[in-house]
Design brief:
single chain; 260 residues; alpha/beta; 4-stranded parallel β-sheet; 8 strands; 14% strand; globular
């Protein structure tokens, strides 16, 4: 599969980490380390309170500041939530949708993920849609079936002309925050399956334009091998995105992969 039709994306997901002052300090260090022209798309998804601080501190760089979640409704009595319009209005471009932790702790479902994807697209945001299986599900041999259900549910309301505006992140739940990582071959098998599902639902031209990220403990030791796979177009980075040097190193690997 020729990667020239899609972006290589290195996206950080801070989860519930760093205060605003810590965000400013991180950004100052990152500015010094990050290449002026990274060679790939760089995204840093931070807690909602930190978005303005990150945007200000990273102004003039090629880092896109994104959000970690959003609500599906445009407005209403949803105390503590943030809408797509609110994110768009402050200049956010990317938003993570359906992360396994959101599904596990906050009861997000495939149906709500689908509605959020549509809301994000309507607000001109780029959704990073997370799909993935648990260790138990992998051992049961239902990974491909589960991924098909999650993916096709997420894209159920997405028109063909909007598909390339969506990024998919494959996150094997058993590899998130555990130090375990799928082998490059295991990750490629699933990412190729994801692309095949999009090809079947839409067409080959559409499918080849969708960036598919790996989101299970990508780090400086395994990034090059993962990104060398034909259907892996970047990473959704957790712990390594909290350290400027580690995140920069991954961006540099992503930049090289984008030129190969």
């Amino acid at each position: 599969m020729n990667k020239k039709y899609r972006k290589t994306i290195i996206a950080g997901n801070w989860k519930m980490n760093k205060t605003a002052s810590e965000t400013a300090a991180f950004a100052a260090e990152l500015r010094e380390l990050l290449p002026r022209r990274p060679g790939c798309e760089v995204v840093l998804c931070v807690p909602a309170l930190n978005i303005p601080t990150a945007q200000k501190a990273l102004k003039g760089t090629r880092v896109n500041v994104g959000a970690e979640t959003m609500h599906e409704a445009a407005s209403g009595a949803y105390t503590g939530e943030v809408s797509a319009a609110m994110l768009s209005d402050v200049g956010v471009k990317y938003v993570i949708i359906g992360h396994s932790e959101r599904r596990q702790y906050y009861n997000e479902t495939d149906a709500s993920v689908s509605r959020k994807v549509c809301a994000a697209l309507a607000a001109d945001l780029t959704p990073i849609v997370c799909v993935g299986e648990s260790l138990e599900q992998r051992k049961m041999g239902v990974t491909m079936e589960l991924l098909a259900y999650q993916l096709l549910s997420a894209f159920s309301g997405v028109a063909e002309e909007d598909v390339r505006r969506v990024v998919v992140a494959y996150e094997p739940i058993w590899a998130i925050g555990t130090g375990e990582t799928a082998t490059a071959e295991q990750a490629q098998e699933v990412c190729a399956h994801i692309r095949a599902l999009l090809r079947k639902k839409y067409n080959a031209t559409v499918a080849r334009g969708v960036s598919i990220l790996y989101g299970g403990s990508m780090n400086t030791a395994n990034a090059a091998g993962l990104l060398a796979m034909p259907d892996i177009d970047g990473g959704l980075i957790g712990g390594a995105s909290l350290k400027p040097a580690d995140f920069t190193a991954l961006v540099e690997v992503g930049g090289k992969a984008d030129t190969e």
